Records
---
Amino acid sequence: MNRLYRFLPFAAALLIVIWMYNDKPDKDPTEKYDGDALVIGVIGEVPEIREQHIRFRELTLDHLVERSDYAAGLDAIFITNEKLPEAAEPRFAAVFKSANIPFFFIGAEKGHFPYIDEELSFEDMPDHGSGMYGSGYYQLSGKEQVWGFGLYNDTISDWNVRGMYSRILGKIETIKLEGI
């Protein structure tokens, strides 16, 4: 019986540790975006998101320089990871700075700089190490807006990336409503 009383504090402490460990969320606590329907242009792979009321329209980087109407009817443009090196070519920098539509560079660990500065090379630009997985850039009437979007626990997983997209969609709605 004496051994049982000595074991009880250890067992209680173990149960508390297990409870605390299991109480921590292992998924991004971000709410799904439930705002207005949006139409997003996508250069690269169309993302898988949690929201059903978002439409995507596929674009190419060449559309940005060859077609003046590429942004018609769009709320924003996503450029996904596999197209980032090409998007950093100097010929696109002026487009990003004058388009009057927000661009979001997904998987952009180099930030937004290689896309808006003709002098910077994508290959020479180091990862900025900020923990941001997505960067947003919007210039309207000479006023520049920049955002960074990280992943929950800095962990790349389908769930965390979808949570990041939900936060980006919320930012796009704010831009649309407030005109910033």
Note: The chain is about 35% helix and 20% strand.
---
Amino acid sequence: MPDEPITFTDLVRGELTFTPENVPDYGILRANGARSTPWSTRSTTP
């Protein structure tokens, strides 16, 4: 996560700013509960 606040413009609410400590860093899980880590998957083709 970045150390500086995250700011973006929402079409409905306007400019929004979040501090890093208020934005959780969730891991992505597959439907079966396994972690989704595309950078560590192996290719099955030689």
Note: The chain is about 0% helix and 20% strand.
---
Amino acid sequence: MANSRTIKEINVNSIRNALFKKKDLSKSEISKITNLSFPTVSTVLEYLIDKEEVKEEGLKESIGGRCSKKYILNPLYKVSLLICLEGDTLEWKIIDYCETIIEEGLEDTKGDILLKIEELIIKKKENYDNLYGITIGVASIIKDGRFLSDIEYKELKGVDVEEYLFNKFNLPTNIDNDLNIVARGYIKRKSLENGETVVNIYIGDNGIGASLIIGGKVFKGMSNFAGEITFLPILENEKDRFKDIDMITYYSKVILSYISIINPNEVVLYNNEYLSEGIEKIEDYLKKKVTKEVIPRIILSNEFKKDYEVGLIEISKELIKN
């Protein structure tokens, strides 16, 4: 049986989520959306206003009768730092509580990568005393905040960056593989709640990688190694930027591997120079190898950055709520 504290947390989250979705709402609208009584809505709103998470924002238009007050989330209640690390580039964004980007930039990470991240956090803490969380996406193998690979960033192998940054700055921190974060964003953008299995494949500065969505959740495997398709025994010189490789055949063999093992509903190929001719040749290759009934939908997407950003934001919201 839920205690009063648990019930309060459920009610707070219910109203908070309603405001995240609808932006501005009256008490009666919140009551209708959340199925909470008007007095409960009033009590929770008073609590959220006192802690400056919610604020009154004028009046709602009314067709007849009195206009009611409308309530919105306070954008500057808390802000989050989002970081993307790939190759020698660190891309960062500051987002407010309403998920709006208020500042962004690029940093060169040649040299001491961890020091560059520390310097960025120090600078942003000075600028934003309401900085609450740090979410980092990295083109590398990450498990429980620790770098497992020395291929991309040798100096970080074995380092628990998540724990290190939390201890140094006392800010909730999350670090994960970039494609797993991208998958989170794809789930959110596409509202994947129907149990479909989806594979997302991307080639970037650190090579090729994939993520796997099963039942609306990201599947990472025992050691967060799922999706490290560079280790598939298809070719040997991927690190040479696929020189002299027939990329249509390579992509086709990777997809065929996934068809054989998990038989996905959909494969998302994030666009790049190797896919300039589209996906028709890949589909033709697959039709020659397997019956058409087992071939997934193949989507050519230009939304890698959008999915990445949405995924980072989803994780940053979890940090704030926790």
Note: The CA atoms of residues 261 and 297 lie 16 Å apart.
---
Amino acid sequence: MDFSLIIDSLPIYFDGLWTTVWLVLSALIIGLGVAIPLAVARNSANYLLSLRHGALFTSSVVHRYWFSFT
């Protein structure tokens, strides 16, 4: 069996692996950058920051919307 084609394509595979790792880490950093301040604001004693008067997107609203159209 000839593995020369696979060996010749290794740089392409490693490029795809690097792109995947970069996208995952970018999404993780952006997600944490948004989630942590929102969680701190949600638990704040300040009425406007805590959004106790009603959030635009709560998990129940998102789930109802998602499951009604799928």
Note: The mean pLDDT is 81.
